[in-house]
């Protein structure tokens, strides 16, 4: 009898949840590699507790309240979950930066710190925050022309301009190598410029807090800035040319005949997320956080009412790094929940299939954009789907836009076409700002659409110039739309505008106040 009782007791104890082995924290092997022999490494600590941003967005009464509601939910989750772990980090004496756009902390520490954090019950994963290089496309042989750029005309942006919709009332953002804010094509459209003086608070953030590539980088004036708690550089600057060029495609117009941007009526803000092409996942996350709730130059007083509406994203992370996929995905999903439309370049690893390999382009929540030439033929370099690197077999890209020989703004001192302020560049980096700028036009035309990322993506897909291919990526047939080369096809903003108006028209009988403008 005693033996039977002991056996039954043992069975109960073994079955009891309290005795189950705790779930092990997922540690990226690269973090273990980087902290061998007690080396100091950069890594991200992702907490188990994450806010439900989509639920917070659904509780918001309208689009104006969506970003503040999501911000409040995300900030509350971080404020609730982080004090204990931050106290431990302080006790360990390690450097760190805490974020709320996803509930995570960027840490610089050794193996002892990794082990201590991995032992915590509130930690879900420890991911690499290694620095990596983004290969930036270079300006091509000089070809300067004035007037409306061919690519801007091809997506039918001028047709919306003619109806009075230029992106007015919309905030356009890009995270890139920075921006030459006083470039003639950009200065009039900078939110921080009032026509007489500049105020960079809430309009610019530099997420580069340490020299990663070059101590002579013009945006890194001295080593001392590394220790400052605020923005790395206190005024917008471009450490190369890439960010100024992509920003120009979104909003550029100098008023003197160089109409290179899709939405010249929008106002822009920016964040530098790489040091001359070298960045960290935490830098990209930091810029997304700034776009959802911009801060002053000290990094204080976040204000979600000043959030970006659309983001032109022209970076990727190579397959060798995979760029903290969980944390980047969380941040991007929370941006989308807040009603911020993020157009992401597909990458320049074509022409083969299964070449959309880099976060954030491979994620389901990203609106991924491939590049076409003036003939609407896919660019040879444009990455194709399906996404196989994560095992999802997800179809990508979602859309395409012009990306071959796109003329736009560049800093005067750039080494590739020195002495000129406009140069052509090719890449999917050039394609994604067409989509982001196009959304700015549509949202200025239809205020009720603003912040509705799902509906806007649907409009762009259904109204696109549907393009087919016999390449057969992912088993696509020659007549299949969408497909893994063009997605739904090349965007057509006039067609998207007309489609939205057609969808609204039946409701005018019941709701006469419906209109196309504010």
Q: What's the story with the biggest beta sheet?
A: 7 strands, parallel
Assigned CATH architecture of the largest domain: 3-Layer(aba) Sandwich
Low-pLDDT residue spans:
1-23, 223-228, 509-518
Q: For the CA atoms, what is the radius of gyration? A: 24 Å
User: How many beta-strand runs?
Assistant: 18
In CATH terms, the superfamily of the largest domain is Peptidase S8/S53 domain
Note the total helix count. Answer: 14
Strand order of the largest sheet: 9-11-8-13-14-15-16
Q: Please state the overall shape, judged from the principal axes of the Cα atoms.
A: globular
Mean pLDDT: 88
Q: In whole angstroms, how far apart are the ends? A: 83 Å
**Structural class label:** alpha/beta
As for the number of domains, it is 2
Question: Beta-strand level of the residues, as a percent range?
Answer: 5-15%
Please report the first level of CATH classification, the CATH class of the largest domain.
Answer: Alpha Beta
Q: Level of helix content?
A: 25-40%
CATH topology of the largest domain: Rossmann fold
Description:
This protein is of the alpha/beta class and 518 residues long. It has 2 domains: 21-130, Alpha-Beta Plaits (2-Layer Sandwich); 147-506, Rossmann fold (3-Layer(aba) Sandwich). It contains 14 helices and 18 strands. Strands 9-11-8-13-14-15-16 form a 7-stranded parallel β-sheet, with helices on both faces. A 5-stranded mixed β-sheet has the order 1-5-2-4-3, with helices on both faces. Strands 6-12 form a two-stranded antiparallel ribbon. It is globular and about 60 Å long. 53% of the residues are buried.
């Amino acid at each position: 009898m005693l033996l039977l009782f002991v056996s039954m007791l043992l069975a109960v104890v073994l079955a009891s949840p309290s005795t189950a082995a705790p779930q092990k924290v997922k540690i990226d092997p690269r973090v273990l590699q980087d902290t061998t022999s007690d080396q100091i490494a950069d890594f991200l600590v992702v907490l188990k507790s994450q806010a439900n941003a989509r639920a917070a967005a659904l509780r918001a009464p309208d689009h104006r309240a969506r970003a503040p509601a999501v911000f409040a939910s995300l900030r509350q989750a971080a404020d609730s979950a982080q004090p204990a772990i931050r106290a431990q980090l302080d006790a360990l004496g390690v450097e760190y930066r805490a974020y709320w756009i996803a509930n995570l902390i960027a840490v610089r520490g050794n193996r002892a710190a990794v082990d201590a954090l991995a032992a915590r019950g509130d930690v879900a994963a420890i991911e690499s925050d290694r620095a990596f290089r983004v290969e930036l496309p270079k300006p091509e042989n000089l070809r300067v022309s004035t007037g409306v750029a061919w690519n801007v005309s091809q997506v039918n942006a001028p047709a919306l301009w003619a109806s009075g919709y230029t992106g007015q009332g919309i905030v356009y953002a890009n995270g890139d190598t920075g921006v030459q804010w006083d470039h003639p094509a950009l200065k009039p459209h900078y939110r921080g410029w009032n026509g007489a003086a500049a105020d960079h608070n809430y309009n610019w953030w530099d997420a580069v807090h340490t020299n990663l590539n070059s101590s002579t980088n013009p945006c890194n004036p001295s080593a001392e800035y590394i220790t400052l708690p605020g923005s790395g550089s206190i005024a917008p600057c471009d450490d190369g040319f890439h960010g100024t060029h992509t920003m120009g495609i979104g909003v550029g117009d100098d008023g003197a005949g160089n109409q290179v941007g899709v939405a010249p009526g929008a106002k822009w803000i920016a964040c530098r997320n790489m040091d001359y092409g070298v960045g960290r996942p935490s830098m990209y996350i930091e810029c997304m956080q700034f776009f959802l709730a911009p801060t002053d130059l000290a990094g204080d007083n976040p204000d979600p009412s000043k959030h970006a509406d659309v983001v032109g994203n022209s970076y990727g992370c190579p397959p060798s790094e995979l760029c903290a996929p969980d944390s980047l995905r969380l941040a991007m999903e929370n941006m989308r929940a807040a009603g911020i439309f993020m157009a992401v370049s597909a990458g320049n690893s074509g022409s083969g299939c299964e070449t959309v390999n880099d976060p954030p382009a491979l994620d389901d929540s990203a609106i991924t954009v491939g590049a076409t030439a003036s003939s609407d033929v896919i660019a040879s370099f444009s990455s194709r789907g399906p996404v196989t690197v994560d095992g999802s077999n997800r179809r990508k890209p979602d859309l395409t836009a012009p990306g071959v020989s796109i003329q736009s703004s560049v800093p005067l001192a750039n080494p590739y076409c020195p002495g000129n302020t406009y140069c052509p560049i090719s890449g999917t980096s050039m394609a994604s700002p067409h989509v982001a700028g196009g959304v700015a036009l549509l949202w200025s035309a239809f205020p009720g659409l603003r912040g509705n990322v799902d509906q806007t993506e649907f409009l762009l897909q259904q109204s696109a110039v549907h393009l087919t291919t016999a390449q057969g990526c992912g088993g696509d047939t020659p007549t299949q739309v969408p497909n893994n080369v063009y997605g739904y096809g090349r965007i057509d903003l006039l067609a998207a505008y007309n489609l939205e108006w057609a969808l609204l028209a039946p409701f005018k009988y019941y709701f006469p106040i419906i209109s196309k403008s504010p």
